[in-house]
Amino acid sequence: MSDVKFSSLEDAVSRFVPDGSAVALGTAQETLIPFAAGHEIMRQKKRNLTLIGPISDILFDQIIGAGCVARIRAAWVGNVITGSSYNFRRAVEAGDVEMEDHSNLTVSMALRAGAMGISFMPARTALGSDLFRTNGSLKTITCPFTGDTLTAVAAIKPDVTIIHVQRADAYGNAHSWGNLGITREACLASRHIIVTAEEIVSPEVIRSDPNRVVIPGFKVSAVAHAPWGAHPSPVPGYYNRDHDAFIAYQRDSKTPEAFDRWKANWVDAVRSNGEYLNLLGEKKMAELAVKYHALTEVADYGY
Amino acid sequence: MAIKPAKDYTAAELMVSAAAREISDGDVVFVGMRLPLLGFQLAKSTHAPNAIGVYELGIVRETAAPEPILTMGDLPNLYHAQWLADTADLMGLLQQGLVDLSFIGGAQVDRYGNLNTSYIGDVDGPIQTRLPGSGGACDLASLAKRHIIIMTHQKRRFVPRVDYITSPGYGDGYDWRQRVGLPRGGPSTVITTLGLLRFDPESKEMVLASVHPGVTAEEVRANTGWPLKTADDLTETPAPAEEELRALRQFDPQGFWTSDG
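Output (structure tokens, whole complex):
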């Protein structure tokens, strides 16, 4: 019998994200970003974290701004709709945060190597680029079969990967759909996984569609219920991207003082999921909710 | 059918129409952020209905998104996609050489089309400005059959040598890509706010190929940080057609990406 992994988000972060952890977040790229979990990390004032991801949209910037981060291993850190993000800029320019510069391909290969249990994966990207100057995880090698020059990408094994999904059961079996980014590799490479979900459903719902399982429960350490837990990023089937929030964040993070005000309002003062939903407001939620539904045809897994 | 050029359009609309015209029908296009999102939508709805759009998040589309999108992860871009997948699946297609064309932008570009979106200043010294980084841009520049660079044309952005090569162009020219081990590709075109630039087939140096309506070659040279060569057959970039502008304004009805200023 599987263990029940159901937990509060507060307990999940407290137990599985100790100071100094290497944390993979935002692995689906622009969708399903686990903002609620990231905000919990900020509220608990975690320190010396390493953040791992492909592009991060603004969640990395927020966690950096809260002083939680010592190192970043990522392909892109910014605000997708507006460009640069300010806490990241300030931290790197001041030398407060160490950066390992990846591309989307190298970070996915680093996690795939971790997922495959080997020390590196070869790739053909980045040759001749300066990524090699600011990323000690990249080296050139000669292919033993063809003699070609290749990029070797050292394995990354996160201490914990945090994903937001549409639905999961109490045992951590998680359904996710839409574009998945590097979610599978990150989960398989990771020692612990925290799943936050729009809905907690019965195990029968998950078992009815095993192809949609993004990670099996036996690999998961904790699962928490977090409706709107990816806001302002979009969740397929649930809500659209809150463009206004991303655009407003550009202004709200321009100076450390502005960011502190933003954080006091949207992170520090929020003590529960319900309080976040109140802050967001019913009008906004109605505006963002999926209105044009598009259901799949059923698939028969019978025998 | 005669194409009727429009009279009233923005610089961004001209750039998007130039980007769309680089897409041939049936091309597999790796679509980037911002203007390329619109360029692909425009090409699909005009001259390239069979183009396939690949988005690094893990999306493959054979149809234009049914509603305007501002970012590639907007839910209409997932609706009735041909395939929703893992980033590595699409990077694999790219690495195999199955992507015809890609689009990237940058903060700095140099005479050999190397692109910097990472650091202004010397990375071994104090960092002047930290930019967002590669994302998928380095992969697209390394592995697509060709890529197109979209840039604002300013002297501080068009520099003799980029501070940091995020996305490789032609290095220091000639056979550099082969020498460093890149399997194929390189930039074919640079679309800017002032004109279109292409690359000398031998030296791989950037050459001014066309100027946008109302812009002179002298103006382009004055905004470029090295002595820019001009093609013998310099032309004027064709203005967007009325039909293109109509389609484009449906994809960006608020002018979020295409209004001036």
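The first helix of chain B runs from residue 11 to 21.
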